[in-house]
Amino acid sequence: MSAYSKELEVAQLAVQRASLLTKKVFHEKAKGTVSKDDASPVTIGDFGAQALIIQAIKKNFPDDQVVGEEEASTLRNDIKLRDQIWAFVKDTTLTDADAERIVGGPIETIDAMLGAIDAGNSAGGNKGRIWALDPIDGTKGFLRGGQYAVCLALMVDGDVKVGVLGCPNLPVDDAAPLTAQSGVDQTDAEGKGVLFSAVSGQGATSRPLGTAGLGKSKPIQMKPVEDITQATFCESVEAGHSSHGDQHAIVTKLGVTKPSVRMDSQAKYGSIARGAGDIYLRLPVSATYQEKIWDHAAGDLIVREAGGEVTDTLGRRLDFSKGRTLQENKGVVAAPKAVHGNVLEVVKEVLAKK
């Protein structure tokens, strides 16, 4: 067995099962009308997906820590919200019995659900085995039927070893190029739903995001960019997450004429890793903002294993060993190795003028 094969299988199945919950929440709560006293669909999906994933991790690797986004104290005081989440969690299972057994089977009680959510309280750091989890990355994308991702990565002594992204609204077809429409109105139509994975030193893959066991995987590679002026750039939808003005200045300086594709979540990392897009920039919007490790750990590994390079805007590798945030880094520049240096140079030039 190759290194981390069990961790990879558990992570893939856990993300696949959690993605089923998020899709169910979207269809039942986000689409159509949400009554005033109902919790936000994001809240229900976030808590529910976190519970399912942490249960799978703890069942298989009881001593591992998890850095998660949510904790259950609000649910202990808000019975109505707790019960809404439980209604989704207790009924979300993989249809393949063996696969469901690997992720620990259904969560059996409300207390077990709350305990699983609370187990995401690790402070992170550079010692031991720590999972970074974002149960719904791209909450606005999730709500609008655009792009979002269920993200999970295993770090060992601060180094990312396994990364998995479940992207329910990206096309299964690795060859489908990104367009201006990729970030909007993509709700799990036919041919949608992809699971990206990588293990350090073993390459990156994609496979359809299913409802049972794992489908057949295909290796993915970043696309060689022969002519940078023809490259497809990705950026965040929210101007609060990445400076659109700086991005525009950078792509203009590089001679790129195609408009940038705006989409939420780590779906951007997955998209460039398989060559559907080429370059992802996340440019600092404030001097003090620190990126969260769960927003980047899986995507960073998947892009690097697909032949890309990922650094911050100063050319430093992303450092996941400093706690819950990337406190030693500013922004993100992800690109195929051959052009990364060129892009980084222009990024530095533009940002230096500010």
UniProtKB/TrEMBL annotation:
Its cofactor is:
Mg(2+)
Going by the UniProt record, its keywords in alphabetical order are: Hydrolase, Magnesium, Metal-binding
Pfam families documented for this protein: Inositol_P
Question: Which reaction equation describes what this protein catalyses?
Answer: adenosine 2',5'-bisphosphate + H2O = AMP + phosphate; adenosine 3',5'-bisphosphate + H2O = AMP + phosphate; 3'-phosphoadenylyl sulfate + H2O = adenosine 5'-phosphosulfate + phosphate
Q: Where does Mg(2+) bind?
A: E69, D134, I136, D137, D295
Class of this enzyme = hydrolase
Q: Which GO terms describe its biological process?
A: inositol phosphate metabolic process; phosphatidylinositol phosphate biosynthetic process; sulfate assimilation; tRNA decay
Entry GO MF terms:
3'(2'),5'-bisphosphate nucleotidase activity; metal ion binding
User: Which InterPro entries does the annotation name?
Assistant: DPNP, Inositol_monoP_metal-BS, Inositol_monoP_superfamily, Inositol_monophosphatase-like, Inositol_monophosphatase_CS
Q: What is its EC number?
A: 3.1.3.7
Output the Gene3D superfamilies linked to this UniProt entry. Answer: 3.40.190.80, Fructose-1,6-Bisphosphatase, subunit A, domain 1 (3.30.540.10)
Instruction: Give the similarity note.
Output: Belongs to the inositol monophosphatase superfamily.
Function as written in the Swiss-Prot or TrEMBL entry: Converts adenosine 3'-phosphate 5'-phosphosulfate (PAPS) to adenosine 5'-phosphosulfate (APS) and 3'(2')-phosphoadenosine 5'-phosphate (PAP) to AMP.
Under NCBIfam families, the record lists: bisphos_HAL2
Q: Which PANTHER family match?
A: 3'(2'),5'-BISPHOSPHATE NUCLEOTIDASE, PHOSPHATASE
According to UniProt, the name of this protein is 3'(2'),5'-bisphosphate nucleotidase
Q: Which organism is it from?
A: Hyaloscypha bicolor E
**Source lineage:** Eukaryota, Fungi, Dikarya, Ascomycota, Pezizomycotina
